[in-house]
Amino acid sequence: MPSTNRKVVEIARDIKSMKIRGAGKIARHAAEALLITAQQSKAKKPSTFVRELETSARLLLETRPTAVSLPNSIRFIMFRVIEAHKRNIKLRQLRQLAIKAATDFIQNSLKAVKSIGVIGAKRIGDGELIMTHCNSTAVIAILETAFNQGKHFEIFVCETRPRLQGRITAQTLNEIGIPTTLIVDGAIRHFMSRMDKVIVGADTVVANGAVINKIGTSTVALTAYESRVSFYVAAETYKFSPETMLGQYPKIEERDPSEILSKEELKEMPGVKVRNPSFDITPPHLINLIITERGIISPQAAFMIIREEFGLKALDESMKYQTYHLLS
Ligand code: RUB
Questions:
Q1: What domains, with CATH codes, occur in the chain?
Q2: Whose CA is nearest to atom 1 of ligand 1?
Q3: Is 134 a catalytic residue?
Q4: DSSP string covering 86-131, please?
Q5: What is the pTM of this model?
Q6: What distance in angstroms lies between residue 122's CA and the mean position of ligand 1's atoms?
Q7: Is 203 considered catalytic here?
Q8: pLDDT tens-place string over residues 271-308
């Protein structure tokens, strides 16, 4: 088994500890880790080179289980490398191909976020009140684009317990100059009836159009539904999960209780259990639209995006190469 590149170990550690966080950033850093593996490889044979990439890929896949953008970015690169390796191409070309695949993924991903910004901004009206939850690069791209177009609107940001990513959103919106109000998660229903819409990001979009995002998102969606407020999701197509077409749902990550109560506080109430799920599932009937870089779709069309983006052959390959192959 080849040893893992030090920089790759560092990236994997930062994803696990959430120093690197958010589904899009996680995917781009995973691609960067494979890029570094390819660039710094000392392999003398193509098979050793592929094994080195697989070792890095396995380490990255074990970091966080819920955002499908992570396995999708690895699949994008590994699929191309393994197919080329089957054609017996030379080591130098294989390395170039891996570097190109990783670079393409990163560039496509950044382009997708920008396109979502442009498409989503068209749905922001002057004078609107909009709620968001957690911290999503795709959502911020929409809001920043609309703001730069001269639209006036105000954002309500949920604090997002326990890791308070809502504060990161509030800080970013403040830097852009967008009027922003930070609220605690418990105040979501109190303010919802005043909102014109909600926009959140996604970690995974499943085949039936359900969206997995930060814990609390489904409560925001349910509250929006009750108040007849539109609920939009901003998600690049690499957040759509081909595995869900094959019956496999991503695991909902449950993080350490110490993110909620310190070890000392926990010791003071030994009989109390703390649960800390990081994500939840919003069902499709609570979602009005999903904004992708390919356009706006209804959640019911998620299935078509998966078929078109990943194709049946890729679905088949995913059984061979992805989570299954690399983690087995
Ligand atoms: C982040 C989160 C974000 C999505 C989308 O969770 O749920 O809403 O990842 O973000 P965590 P983006 O902080 O646990 O990673 O649009 O930036 O991909």
A1: 6-113+312-327 (1.20.120.420), 115-310 (3.40.50.10470)
A2: 22
A3: yes
A4: HTT--HHHHHHHHHHHHHHHHHHHHHHHHHHHHHHHTTPPTTEEEE
A5: 0.95
A6: 22
A7: yes
A8: 999 999 999 999 999 999 999 999 999 999 999 999 99
